[in-house]
Amino acid sequence: MGRSPCCEKAHMNKGAWTKEEDQLLVDYIRKHGEGCWRSLPRAAGLQRCGKSCRLRWMNYLRPDLKRGNFTEEEDELIIKLHSLLGNKWSLIAGRLPGRTDNEIKNYWNTHIKRKLLSRGIDPNTHRLINESAVVSPSTLQNDVVETLHLDFAGKVKPEPVREEIGGINNCTSSGTTSEKDYGNEEDWVLNLELSVGPSYRYESTRKVSVVDSAESTRRWGSELFGTQSDAVCLCCRIGLFHNESCRNCRVSDVRTH
DNA sequence: AACTAGAGCAACCGCATCGCG
DNA sequence: ACGCGATGCGGTTGCTCTAGT
Known about the structure:
Elements (H helix, E strand, L loop, with lengths): L18 H14 L7 H5 L5 H12 L10 H14 L3 H6 L6 H18 L23 H6 E2 L8 H9 L28 E2 L18 H11 L8 H4 L20
Antiparallel strand pairs: 1-2
The protein binds a DNA duplex through helix 3 and helix 6.
Keywords: DNA-binding, Nucleus, Repeat, Transcription, Transcription regulation
GO molecular function: transcription cis-regulatory region binding
Pfam family, one: Myb_DNA-binding
């Protein structure tokens, strides 16, 4: 019994992709678009399972991928996002145009971990290795640290946010704040329109309908954060995209907001 | 030149989540 | 509400390349 395999593996190629396979996949997707990965291999004439095709496309063949070395700005952004999100590579990748989750994950494991360790920072907790106190001040400007806040969809998970504001987060997947401090995980939703900013007042955004009894937490969020119009994306707040359009804010000059 | 160890990265695997009937 | 297939995600593996001896 048990789950049926995602594909018939007996006659499938495995291992590195050949140029011919790449070409077949690219040609097929150009013609038909992405989607239906399970049936794609057969339709494209590939002896690969759908998962493998998807991975190859996502991580290597997509035309919008940015190849080459990570910039210093990207490094810092990854570190900051990891301190907020933990090993949520796909979410982190969503904030780095042209980078894939796999690429970022590999880069983290091979470069950034070492970089943080050399700074005396534990890459898992983002805390200084020799001190129990706070955390990676070297990587975040003070004004940003003081005002780091998260914006929640529908429900607010208050305590960790307060911790964000007071020092730096405990929100990573390996964080230490216990679940009982803010209820069940299912009761709150982190809106990944993460924002970092000065002490603007900020209202929790509600991308999904609020169907809960969280009026109090909502009010709490409003009192704490003010209106959403003040929110600026993380990239802009930490000073990236100084001279170019930010894809998150759609604003060409971040100094104006 | 040959060998070895380590780094880097593409790809795989298994589980989780989503979405549709 | 439930079951099941499809897709997505994160951890891990293993191959390739390169630097050191």
